[in-house]
What does this fold into?
Amino acid sequence: MLLLGIETSCDDTATAVVRDGRDVLASVSTAQDAFHAKYGGIVPEIASRRHTALLSAAIEDAAARAQTPLSAIDAIAVTRGPGLIGSLVVGVASAKALAFALKKPLYGVNHLHGHIFAAFLERPERPRYPMLALLVSGGHSQLVRVLSPVSMEILGRTRDDAAGEAYDKTARLLGLPYPGGPEIDTLAQRGDPNAHKFPRHRPDPGSLDLSFSGLKTSVRYFLEAEAGKKAKREDVAASFQAAVVDVLMARVESAFAQREYACAVLSGGVAANSALQHAFRSWASREHVDAFIPPPKYCTDNAAMIAAAAYYQGDVVRADPLTLDADPNLAFEIPTAA
Ligand code: KG4
Ligand code: ZN
It folds into this structure.
C-alpha cells in the first residue's frame, strides 16, 4: 500500500511517499526556521503563509523523488491536528482536494500518533503491544500506553511546558538561536552535567505527570545571579539537559515498573537529543526491553510518520474528502464507536 503523507501542523512543510508503513520512498521537508528565527519562536501567520507557498511543490517533489506518479498512490494521509489551525488548514484543504480529484481514499491522522509510528519507519520490526511510548516534542510531552494502533492511554503529561519548549526557552536565556534543542544538545557535549544542580520535578505519589517550568525558572534565576554570569554556558546547558533527562527517565522507569510492556518507543523532536537517547537505550538494555527510537530526521516533524500512522490505523481514521476538518485541539485518544 503506497501512501502520500502530508504534514503541516506547525512550521515544517512536509510530504512523503511511504510503502506499507515502513519503506520511505521519499520524505521532503522544508523547514521555515529562517523565517521565524528572528522572532525567537514560530509566528503562526508566517507559518501558514509559507505552507501555502510551498505545499503544492512539496507534493510534486515527493512524488518525483519516489518516482511514483500521483495517480499510482493508493491513498492520502494528512495531519488533521493537533497543531496551529492556520497551518493545519493548508494541509487538510490540499489533501481533500487531491483525494477528491484523484478519487483516492483519505486518512485524517493525529500528529502525535504519527510521532509514535515514526519509530517503525525503515525498520524490519513491526510495532508490538502493549507499547510504552515517551512522546517529547515542542508542543507535547507525555507518556503513553499504546494497546493497539487505535487504542492509547495517556499515563502522564506535562503540567506546564513541553520538554522541547523548555529546551527552546532555556536556549533563549543562553542567547542561543531557535530552535534551541539541537543548540543545547551540541553545547552540552562540551559541558559538565554535574557543574550545577538544577531542580528535578517530582510528581505527586502515583502520578506520572511531568513539569519543566520550575527547571526553566531556576536556570533563569541562576543566570541572573553573580555565579551564573560567570558560569560556562556549556556547563549550564549540560546541567539543564541532565535535569530534563533525569525527569523523563524517572517517569519511564516508574511507568515500566507498574505494568508489562512488549517494547518501548522514544519519539518526537526531543527524542533526537543525544543524552536522552543514550539514557533511554541504557535503561532499555538494563530492563531487556526492545527500544525503538527513530533516526533524527523522523524524530522531528515529517510526513512519513503520518503515512505510517494511517497505514497502521486504517479504516478507523478514514475520512470523507468532502467534510474532513482540521482540529487544532484534536484529542489524543480516538473515541470508540458506540
Ligand atoms: O516534534 P517536533 O519537530 O515538533 C513538534 O511537534 O513540536 O519537535 C520540535 C522540538 C523543538 O522544541 C526542538 O527544540 C526540539 O524538538 N529538539 C530537540 C533536539 N532536536 C529538536 N531538543 C533537544 N535535543 C535535540 N537534539
Ligand atoms: Zn511534532
